[in-house]
Amino acid sequence: MSRSGTSGAVDTLAAAQALSTELRRRADEVEQARRLPPDLSHRFAAAGFYRMCVPEAYGGLELPPCDTMRTIETVARADGSCAWCVFIGATSGSVLAVLAPEAAREIFRRPDVLLGGVFAPHGRAVATEGGFRVTGRWPWGSGTENADWVMGGCQVIRNGEVELAKNGAPRSRMMLAPADQIEFFDTWHVSGLCGTGSTDFAMNDLFVPERRAAGLGVDGPLARPLYAFPQFGLLAMGIAAVAMGLARAAIDELVSLAGAKTPQGSSRSLAMRPAAQSDVAKAEALLRSARSLYYETIERAWEAARADGAIGTEHRRDVRLATTHATRASAAAVDLMYELGGGTSVYRRSPLQRIFRDVHVATQHMMVSPSTLELTGRLFLGVETDTSLL
Question: What is the CA radius of gyration of the chain?
Answer without folding.
Answer: 21
